């Protein structure tokens, strides 16, 4: 067995090769930001009201705002005019609001579609599929399905990456994620939109596992904390960039198309990087591992002689007892996380922390449109703390430990 840690001492713990791999694979986090927080823009809910005859507005000489106030009943609970009902009206034999609009009659549910305010976005998922009033819940279902996709992807591709390698996981999962992302772009029914959003999450999370594990495996122990933080910094950068894209492309199809096209280079990056040497050595693929290490050494300007390989090679023989105790056969499953008391406690602890952080993170991020001010500026500024590596109570909380983690325990 060849120990990769020993070879890192020879080729460098964070040389040009590792920097290149880190930058290329961290690009995935931009794609993750494009999709996980896309609903802030693509599912933006504009102001709306029932579709009524344009003749009425023209006949009464009303502005759009005045039309809403006159034709729509006021909802005291929401403190706004209802967009789901309207008062009966007529344009025949009437001369003013009181004679044309019968406000004493019970309001009627919208039966001719809805009229949306398109001053912010020309088209969103909400306006295209009419996800308002009785169909409002479908937007929440779409968001939930996306998170379910993340859950499924984490289970499926975690085992897949351990068995078939980091590179293959990245290539297959991201190729499928891109295909599903294009599927989202060209979805013109709500069922297809939900389906492709969910599948995108499944395959994208596979890419997340492959890229994150890869970059932490090819650097030295002291550098792992730094590359972990650096990897996640690309997430807020991607989100800020998406805010800029959304500002110039106000149709949700165009917005997602641009975000998808911008993400395409990652597939090329996944193809050109070598397989993780650490994974190759740990699975007995020594020749392929040597080839990958030699490539990294050449890029780093280092040379490996026979003594280096001898020093890294161990001739330890595994006894049956050791195989049984340490499970060095490599056949692990997700269930192994819960079989031993200490591991079970740590797993449940991390799961709880991850749940709470995501609850806070998405609860705030997906509702920034409720803040006063410009939607695009608010969304861009909401990620500035991430770029400064000073976020608190979010999934980037680990960045606040950047200076202390290498010198202290994880706890």
Describe what is shown at a glance.
The protein is mainly alpha-helical and 411 residues long.
Give the proportion of residues in helices.
Answer: 55-70%
Strand content range: under 5%
Write the H/E string, N to C. Answer: HHHHEHHEEEHEEHHHHHHHHHHHHHH
| Class from secondary-structure proportions | mainly alpha
Q: Which shape, going by the Cα principal axes? A: elongated
SS elements, strand count: 6
Report on the biggest sheet.
2 strands, antiparallel
What distance lies between the first and last C-alpha atoms, to the nearest angstrom?
32 Å
Q: Averaged pLDDT, please?
A: 83
Q: Supply Rg.
A: 27 Å
- Unreliable stretches, pLDDT < 50, 5 or more residues? 317-328, 389-403
Strand order of the largest sheet: 1-6
Number of helices: 21
Q: Which characteristics define this entry?
A:
411 residues, 6 strands, two-stranded antiparallel ribbon, mainly alpha, 3% strand
Can you characterise this structure?
- Strand 2 and strand 3 (80-81) form a beta hairpin.
- It contains 21 helices and six strands.
- Helices cover 60% and strands 3% of the residues.
- Helix 9 runs antiparallel to helix 10 (166-185) and helix 10 runs antiparallel to helix 14.
- With 411 residues, the chain is mainly alpha-helical.
